[in-house]
Amino acid sequence: MTLIGGKYPRWLAALALAALLAPAAVLAGYEDLESEVQEIVLDNGLKLLLLERHDVPVFSFMTYVDVGAVDEDMNKGGLAHVCEHMAFKGTQEVGTRDYRKERDLLEAMDALYVQILAERLKGDLGDADRLAALEAEFAALQERADALVEPNEFSKLVEINGGVGMNAMTSTDATRYFYSVPSNQLEFWAALESDRFINPVFRQFYKECNVISEERRQVVESSPQGRLYEEWVTLAFKAHPYGQPIIGHRSEIEAYTRPDAEAFFRSRYGAQKIVVAVVGDVYRDELERVARKYWGEVPPAPAAEPLRLVEPEQLGERRVILEDPSQPVVLIGYHVPDARHADTPAVEALADILGRGRASRLYTKLVKEDKSALFAGAFAGIPGDKYPNSMLVFGVPNSGVDPLELEASILAELDRVMAEGVTEAELAGYRNRARANFVRGLESNTGMANQLCYAEKVLGGWQRLFHQLDLIEAITPADVQRVAGQYLTKSNRTVGLLVTQPAAGQDS
Fold it and tell me: Could you give the CA distance from residue 60 to residue 176 in angstroms, rounded to a whole number?
C-alpha cells in the first residue's frame, strides 16, 4: 500500500519531474465520453459509474471512499490510513483458517491491550512487573491468533484470478482502492471487493500498527524533509485538520485499539460515502446485476456532520526553521481556495507557470540562470483540495547558497509575477500542458476511473470532469495576475526552512 496527497509532499516527487506532452489529436472525441458514462445508484446509496471499453477483455476499477485524514477525531489521527491497511487483511471468510476461534482470541487481545495502555499511561508510577506480565500474556495470544491466519489470502485470490496492479492510497481527502481484472472475473471481483467493506476483519491489527509506526519513523522522523513538511503544514493550518499528518502522531499510533479502528470504519465507511468507477470490458446489465447482489449489501453509515471548521484568515507571516546536517530546503506556502472555487483554475495556472517543469519561471531563473538552486518548483492543492488549501513554492539551494538568500530570490520572482503578470505565450503553454495531462488521465482505464471518482466526490459530480478544459480555456493573463496579487501576500504565507547544521564533531 502507498500513501498520497497531504501525507508526504508532492514537491518531493517533483525533483524528478519531466514535462510530458500528448499529441493534440488525442483530444479528439473526449467530449463524447460524457454521454457514454452510465450511472447506477443502489438502494443503500452506493453509486457505481461505468464507462464501457470493449477493445480488450479486462476492466479496471476504483473504489473511492470519501473518507480521509480530515474525517478523524482528535486523539485518533491516522485511523483512515489504518483502515486502508486493514482492508487487505481479509474478511470473515478470507484470510482465516477458523474465524470463530480467531475472533475469540482477537477480542481477548483487545481487552488485554486496554489494560496494557492503562499501565503504560501511568509512566513512572506504573507497575513494571504487571506491565511485563500483561505484555507476555498478550504476545502469547497474538501467537495463537497468528496461527489461525491465512497470510495474504486476499492478495493471492486477486492474483490467482488474474488481477494485477492492486494497491490503495490514503490522502487528506479520501481513500482509494484499485486493481485491474479480466472481464470474465466480474462476479468474483464484485464478491471479493464488496466483502471487505461488509465483513472486514481487522486481524493482526496490533502488529500492523507497529509496521505503521516504523513507516512514520522512516519517512518523517528520520527524514529531515519529512519533518520540515510536517512542521510547515501544522503551522500553515492551525485550525483545519489539513494541518494534521495523515499517518498520525506516534503517540496516537501506539495507543490505537482494534475497537477504535472498527468504530471509525463503521461510522465512516458507509455505502453513501463510496463511489465505484468501472472502466473497461463490462456491460451495464451484468454490472448492475452483480452490484445489486454484492455491493448492495454494504451498510450505510450514520449521517455524518459536515466539516464546519474553516481555517481562519491568516493575519501575518508564519515561519518555522529546522536545523539538520542535511541538504537545506525552502518551503513557502500561501492559502488558496478549494477545488470548486472560481479562482482555482487561475491559481493552478499560476503555480504551473511559476514552477512546473524545467521551462517554468522559477526553474529558469534560479536553476539555469542564477544557479542558486538545484531545483525549484510550485504546486497547488497542498495538502488536499476538497477544502481551502495551499499553493506551495519550494527550492533546494545550491552548494554554498544560504536558504535565506534563496528564499529572497523566490520571493522576488513572486513579486515580479504580481507586478507584471504572465504572458499570453506562457498561458498558452500551460493550456497545452493541462490538455495533455487531462487527456493522459482519461486514456488508461485506471486513470479514467480515478478521474470519475474524484470529480464525483470533490468537484460535485462526475459530469464536471468533462468541463475542466472549458475552465482552463477561459483563463486570461489578467486572471492569473489578479489571483497572484490576491493570494501571494506576505500576511498569507507560511515559510519553512531546513537549515544545514554541522553534524556533531564537525566544525561549523
Answer: 13
Task: Give the three-class secondary structure for 33.
Answer: helix
> Partners of 373 in the beta sheet?
397
Q: How far is 367 from 397, CA to CA, in rounded Å?
A: 9
**pLDDT digit string (tens) for 77-104?**
999 999 999 999 999 999 999 999 999 9
CB 394 within 8 A of CB 334: no
Q: How far apart are CA 162 and CA 273, in angstroms?
A: 28
| pLDDT band at residue 110 under the 50/70/90 scheme | very high
Q: What is the pLDDT of residues 356-404, one digit of tens each?
A: 999 999 999 999 999 999 999 999 999 999 999 999 999 999 999 999 9
Nearest in space to 403 (alpha carbons), one of 219, 223, 224, 221: 224
Question: Do the beta carbons of residue 33 and residue 53 sit within 8 Å?
Answer: no
Check residue 247 and give left, alpha or beta (phi > 0: left; psi -120 to 50: alpha): alpha
Give the burial string for 465-474 (b: 16+ CB within 10 Å, else e).
bbebbeebee
Residue 337's nearest CA partner among 319, 318, 310 is: 310
Largest Cα–Cα distance in the chain?
73
**Nine-digit cell at 61?**
476499477
Roughly what angle, to the nearest 10 degrees, separates helices 79-86 and 205-216?
A: 120
Q: 222: how many CB neighbours lie within 10 A of its CB?
A: 10
pLDDT tens by residue, 466-481? 999 999 999 999 999 9
Cell representation of residue 24? 493534440
Whether the full predicted model's pTM is greater than 0.85, yes or no, is: yes
What CATH number does the domain located at 2-17+28-297 have? 3.30.830.10
Listed as own residue / partner, the contacts of 482-488 with beta carbons closer than 8 Å and 24 or more positions apart are 482/346, 483/336, 483/343, 483/346, 483/347, 483/350, 484/350, 484/414, 484/417, 484/418, 484/421, 485/418, 486/343, 487/334, 487/335, 487/336, 487/347, 487/391, 488/334, 488/414, 488/417, 488/418
Intra-chain end-to-end CA distance of the chain, in Å? 41
Report domain 318-500's class.
alpha beta
List, by residue range, all CATH 3.30.830.10 domains of the chain.
Answer: 2-17+28-297, 318-500
